[in-house]
């Protein structure tokens, strides 16, 4: 995020505003990322929030009774504006669009990076949230993840509690209809991920048949810049197996695979030399089969991976 000290407030006021902002930055990052699904746009919204906060904090000289609530409200409204702009941009995006993965080592605990520790949804759920309207998504995130009441959310987005309750109900029904609540154990997901990658990279159709659910779907986001298997999702086990057999035939021997995590979900990162080529996240059902495969190959979404 851009340095918040690039403003022209007096030093003492700037330091006070900065300290308050930093105290709540991790929460703001988590809220905004779950609404937007984009690291770059999240950072932009945090900068906009800072620019809204610092002059107001200076002018009111501590008269804001609840800085946390004020900052979340400002961030949410900036995120809603950004989300609308993102949706317009999405209309010209080439192929499928997937959320930008925040990738970490499974045991990584970097206190300097709020995105790593942020409360965030799985890739599969973030994809479902893309089908909600911006306001429904914001209400769902604030209510389901962060536990804000309908009345608190109503104050943030200038709606009545009744309207927010209706938005929350519609969003929850929509999500639950498209996203089963039961998932495999995290340790099982890691084993299944490694098993799938070995079968896919090895071009083993029998093993792929065993690990993939009959109704599996493959999403690939290349953004017209990275390799993509299709401009549309690929549905069905036979079709997905055919795709990965073709991928295996085209793989060079020097590709490297590392196992990391995206929002707590195990993932595989494919490297071409030192450059990341793809992040692959699986949605593993409670019967330990793969029901969803999310492959992000757009290089613009892989810039934070090392």
SSE topology sketch:
Elements: H1 11-36, H2 39-60, H3 67-90, E1 103-104, H4 114-117, H5 123-129, H6 134-145, H7 150-157, H8 161-178, H9 186-202, H10 205-211, E2 212-221, E3 234-235, H11 237-250, E4 256-262, E5 265-272, E6 275-284, E7 290-296
Parallel strand pairs: 2-7
Antiparallel strand pairs: 1-4, 2-3, 4-5, 5-6, 6-7
Helix pairs in contact: 1-2, 1-3, 2-3, 6-8, 7-8, 9-10
What this model shows, in words?
By secondary structure, the chain is α+β, with helices and mostly antiparallel strands. The chain contains 11 helices and 7 strands. It has a 7-stranded mixed sheet with strand order 1-4-5-6-7-2-3. Helix 1 packs across helix 3 and helix 2 runs antiparallel to helix 3. The radius of gyration is 21 Å and the shape is globular. The two termini are 18 Å apart.
Summarize model confidence as the mean pLDDT: 86
Strand arrangement, major sheet:
1-4-5-6-7-2-3
What Rg do the Cα atoms give? 21 Å
Helix-strand sequence: HHHEHHHHHHHEEHEEEE
Query: What can be said about the biggest beta sheet?
Result: 7 strands, mixed
Number of E-state strands:
7
Q: Rough shape?
A: globular
């Amino acid at each position: 995020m851009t340095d918040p000290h690039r403003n022209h407030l007096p030093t003492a006021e700037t330091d006070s505003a900065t300290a308050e902002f930093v105290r709540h930055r991790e929460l703001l990052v988590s809220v905004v990322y779950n609404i937007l699904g984009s690291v770059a746009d999240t950072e932009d919204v945090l900068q906009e929030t800072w620019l809204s906060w610092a002059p107001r904090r200076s002018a009111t000289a501590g008269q804001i009774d609840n800085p946390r609530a004020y900052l979340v409200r400002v961030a949410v409204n900036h995120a809603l504006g950004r989300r609308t702009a993102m949706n317009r941009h999405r209309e010209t995006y080439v192929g499928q669009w997937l959320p930008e993965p925040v990738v970490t080592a499974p045991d990584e605990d970097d206190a300097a990076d709020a995105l790593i520790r942020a409360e965030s949804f799985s890739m599969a759920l973030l994809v479902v949230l893309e089908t909600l309207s911006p306001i429904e998504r914001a209400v769902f995130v604030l209510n389901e993840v962060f536990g804000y009441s309908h009345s608190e959310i109503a104050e943030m987005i200038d709606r009545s509690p009744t309207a927010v309750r209706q938005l929350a109900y519609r969003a929850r029904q929509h999500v639950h209809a498209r996203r089963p609540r039961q998932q495999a154990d995290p340790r099982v997901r890691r084993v299944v991920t490694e098993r799938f990658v070995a079968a896919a990279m090895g071009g083993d159709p029998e093993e792929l048949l065993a690990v993939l659910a009959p109704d599996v779907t493959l999403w690939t986001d290349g953004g017209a810049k990275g390799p993509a298997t299709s401009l549309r999702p690929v549905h069905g086990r036979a079709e997905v197996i055919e795709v990965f057999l073709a991928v295996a035939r085209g793989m060079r021997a020097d590709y490297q695979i590392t196992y990391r995590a995206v929002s707590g979900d195990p993932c595989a990162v494919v490297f071409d030399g030192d450059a990341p080529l793809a992040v692959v996240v699986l949605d593993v059902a409670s019967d330990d089969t793969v029901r969803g495969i999310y492959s992000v190959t757009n290089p613009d979404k892989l810039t934070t991976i090392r």
